[in-house]
Amino acid sequence: MKIRRIVLDNDTPAVGEPGGPAAIGSDAAGAPTSTGEHEAAPVSVLHVVGEDTELRALEGLRADECERLIQQLDEFPIETIVLDSCWTPAVGKLLATRFQTVIGIPARIGSSDAEEFISNWSDAIAAGAAGVEAFERAFSAIAAEELPEDIQPVFIHDEAEVLGFRAPRRSSTVEVAFGTNRTIDTGSGRFTSGTGKTLTGTCEVTVFSDAPVGRRRRTLGRDDAPVLMNHTMLDGRAFAAAMTSALDADTSNRRAVLVYVHGFNTSFREAAQHAAQFHVDLNIPGATLLFSWPSRGSGHQLAYHADEDSIIAAERPLYDFLTTLHDLPDVGPVHVLAHSMGCRAALRAVVRAADNGTAPFELGELILAAPDVSETYFAQIAPALPGIARRTTIYTSRRDRALRVSELLHSTARIGSGKPVVRIPEVPDRMTFVDAGKVDISFLGHGYYAAAAPVLRDIHWLVYGLPAGSRFGMERHNDPGRLTLRAST
Length: 489
What we know:
The chain is an alpha/beta fold and 489 residues long. The protein has two domains: 2-163, no CATH class; 171-485, Alpha/Beta hydrolase fold, catalytic domain (Rossmann fold), CATH 3.40.50.1820. The chain has 14 helices and 19 strands. The chain has helices spanning 63-72, 89-95, 111-126, 131-141, 159-163, 236-248, 268-281, 301-313, 315-326, 342-356, 375-381, 401-410, 448-451, 453-463; strands at residues 2-7, 33-34, 44-49, 80-84, 101-105, 154-157, 171-184, 191-208, 218-219, 222-223, 227-234, 256-261, 286-292, 334-339, 363-369, 389-396, 431-435, 474-476, 482-485. The strands form three sheets. Strands 11-8-7-13-12-14-15-16-17-19-18 form an eleven-stranded mixed beta sheet, with helices on both faces. Strand 9 and strand 10 (222-223) form a beta hairpin. Helix 1 packs parallel to helix 2 (89-95), helix 3 (111-126) packs antiparallel against helix 4 and helix 9 packs across helix 10. It is globular, with a radius of gyration of 25 Å. The model is unreliable at 9-43, 52-59, 159-169 and 215-223 (pLDDT under 50).
């Protein structure tokens, strides 16, 4: 493999001459050199780097610069061009008319991740990986699936050749029933981040069954994310009939219900996709439902505080939704899987039920994944949980960066951070803390419950009623009710 690296001039936006300090695949004079040539992957690469500043170039190459670059490179057998911190979608499309492969690395990704991506991509190519496979390895190496889409690396390739790496897709349609207190935009029919009355219905989601277990956004150039096809609003009677029909179709006769409550920074569409993927990955013996509260669907700090207000308003709607499910004829156990901030609404709904005295609903498994919940608050309400939930399982991780930020914002420990829960005198009966910090998790360490196979496998056995002591891959502690999930399960 031969790589030539050029750097845009700091003073003017014109493309500079190859040269400067020694770089990947170049000698000090900028002449192309061999960097691990491999017969299976004879790739000639041009690595174009934006202005070498702390902020990096944000504007990308202009169209006239692209044309000039193409003219300058006509004599070189360049197959792949990497736009490092000078990428824009328009530039990518223009250069794709000249080069077989274009890889874009947005400036906002930062120097460290950009350099790590380039290093992993180069190593994969040198080892004989095909272009799209090398991209996927580098993409995974920096956990880019955890980054906002607008700063993820981009791969543009001749579509016919990309198809050569794709296996035929196998898919299934999953019907996800839902309850939500989001409002609906009357023009588009889409759910918004506004708070309104509780609505119920069903939606259809296409899930690719040949995708790996867990939610991976990309696999060998493919988009493996589930696809939300449509949704249908149903009134109370029609919703109950739809649920009864779904449970009647359950061949396992368990008639179980799993209710997924999403966390911060999640749109309705994303939540429905997650719920459908859980139904497939966990092999739910019954029906999977979604309760979607009006998260802003943004990772901004202001949106986080707005979501905190929204999750408080979601307590009563979720309580009513769980009561409705409990009252369905011949329903099996109702399980709740809540993530992050969604755990706050789930816990408040359970506490409300416990305080009611008549127990309007009972739960099978209450599963709290990476709960963004105050340790002090949890210690206060923990004794009430066994009165409503048959068993409560809390997945924690010290590697959860998102919860570290939450702790800084609130100046208080979060129960999902994996630190010793010293302020809970003793773990109540039927409650288990599972340390998931050893599993292979994402960059933020906050989405392991949905992406790490060992965690998904453990949740599967939970739903099927297997007690903690009988589940595979657990390390016991001296403290009762505390387990560690091994990474190699």
